Amino acid sequence: MAINDIYTDGIASGWDVRDASSFTAPTTLEADIVIVGTGAGGGTSAEILANAGFKVLLIEEGPLKTSASFKDMNEARAYAELYQEASGRTTSDGAITVLQGRAVGGTTTVNWTSSFRTPPETLRHWAEAHGVKGWSVDEAKPWFDERSERLGIAPWGVPPNANNAVLQKGCEKLGWEWHVIPRNVRGCWNSGYCGFGCPVNAKQSMLVASIPAALAKGATLVHHLSVRKLQFSGDRVTGLEAVALDANCIHPSGVSVRVRAKHVVLAGGAINNPALLLRSGAPDPHGRVGKRTCIHPVVFTYAQMPERIDGWYGAPQSVASDHFQWSGQFDFAPGFKMEVPPVYPALIAALFGRSGPELSQNIAQLPQFNVMLALTRDGFHEDSPGGEVRIDEAGNPLLDYEVSDYLFRGFKNALLRMAEAQFAGGASQVMAAHLDASWSPNWTEAKRQIENLAYKKFKLALGTAHIMGGCAMGEDARQSVVNSEGSHHQLQNLSIIDGSLFPTSIGANPQLSIYALAARNATRLAQRLKPAAV
Amino acid sequence: MTPAAEPTAFGRRDFLKLSAGSAALLGAGAFTAGLAGCAKQEAPAAGYAFLRAGDAALFAAIAPLVLADSLPQQGRAEHLQQLLKAIDGTGARLQAPTQKMLYQLFDLLNTGLTRRLAAGVSKPWAEAEPAQIEAFLNRWRNSSIGLFNGGYRALNKLVVGNWIALPEGLKAVGYPGPWAPMYSALNS
């Protein structure tokens, strides 16, 4: 059966979509509002601003890949074409793997669809500790309601796959809190291939939902275009310097592009936004750009189940537990949210970190693997201040991230609780994702082993798929880059609208936190600018 | 780290001394290149976009030891070639800072002196004994020095992540293929 390709049909109906790799001569593009980045922040902003009547230009460094190219359901193709650095991005020392999208739709094109509202504890902390105004639990609620409605976000109504069921069963047996994860899907086939690009347009990513809506309202999308610098005059951004990329989206093609717009929205994420501001020498009188770049550091445990569970099939994430997230000794160690990753073959085999027969014999059992993960809450304690984005001499972004003893204590707690849940959920053997770990046949042995592991970078497998902050919002310009609505403190016609605004990590997968805040900020921006007046 | 896991040619104290020196080199690739006295601004090998000739030889040597039975004996040369191309494709898509970090690692392993000291491998990779390669992988995995663990993780991830994404690698992990009800509906 053929699935209509939204973009083939849209372009045929007159959408203005341009591939900068095909540009042969220097070009100048103009718009009322230019949005740099097409992920959760940029896509949402584009839809709202185009609906409000502005001439919107969306710029994306990555390629436009659509359902037609996702129907091979192939992991290798996905990493090469849809992820930052082919999924090989890491922190600057190589210790933490960073999974981030790089395509039209940004990370929303490849994420696993988990869609949580920002936890009330996080919103209260932002107001109290970071001077964020106007984004309290009550003020944010209508925006979460509206975006949930728009993107089909609802708790997953189908029983969890066997991989998620281990977490559910473990929590039930241990009397721990667990909940069904809300997902942004319509007409989902429950295949599990969200991470490779949804081949049936069920995931309501920006690629499928908001960007097509913006294009239908006359927005322009230019992909394969990398913005290198902002230009300034006084307190205004006067233009953008960009370079077209080659067809493979790796090297500059040699064609330069200038962009002029009355207002500029940065939505390139928590690594690329600070890097662009730093490359451009943007005003930063208090040295806040790139600071407090928070992540959810993730640790993992593997379990062997007594039977085949095929953890690669079925909605990747449908069950989560906050049992250790908001109650605990947080002066001692951070809280964490427990979930499972999909058992995508290359992803999990590469994480495994073994060689020789120990590798081949273990990964031959992948059909029986359950894998659990814990997202650690970053940015809520003085010993968890996040990392820092800086640029190298060529202007490339680097994320420096130190792991404190405070965080390592949280990782140990998380490994223990995940192992306990896996045994309670029926596992026959459990092992922490750590170079020195081995399979334990029961919880007592696993506990003894995990308590005695060396808690060090590289020994412990660390990853993250959530980069937040680095352009923090707040009312105090000494502590933040933009105000509570995303307007830059020093540059009048510059807004930042995406996850780089967050003063801390979220404590849950962040896409809906970005959608709701972006919807509010873009709506306020539209009210402030008024189409006729720009 | 247990003494038995260390190079037999050295005593424990010597190895630790050398390890610390090698760790410093691993963190200073430019110095490594300078020490080796060879131009490491070398271009990628013919047909490659990222791997230089020595890097390809390194991966060709270690991949069979990393993958063991996940790499079928039959058609091994062809599989290895596919794997090198896949590693090269991934490397080419890395940004400059990540590429630089990897080239530093490869330089360390491809320079005679540091290869012997840090990896304990006495001959160039193409001629290295499997037992020495295996010992090198174990030593870097088990080392208490983070930079060696990091080097091990980087090599392992490039080999395993790229191989298991290829058709023969997917067979080795028992993956039945793309979820059939959807795949057949979309590709019929």
From TrEMBL, chain A:
Pfam families on file: GMC_oxred_C, GMC_oxred_N
Family, as annotated: Belongs to the GMC oxidoreductase family.
Superkingdom in the source lineage: Bacteria
Cofactor(s) annotated in UniProt: FAD
Span of domain Glucose-methanol-choline oxidoreductase N-terminal: 79-298
UniProt keyword list: FAD, Flavoprotein, Oxidoreductase
Residues holding FAD: 107, 227, 499, 510-511
Official protein name in the record: FAD-binding protein
Domain Glucose-methanol-choline oxidoreductase C-terminal: 392-518
Higher taxonomy: Bacteria, Pseudomonadati, Pseudomonadota, Gammaproteobacteria, Nevskiales
GO molecular function, one term: flavin adenine dinucleotide binding
Record-linked SUPFAM superfamilies: FAD/NAD(P)-binding domain
TrEMBL record, chain B:
InterPro entries for the chain: TAT_signal (IPR006311)
UniProt name for this protein: Twin-arginine translocation signal domain-containing protein
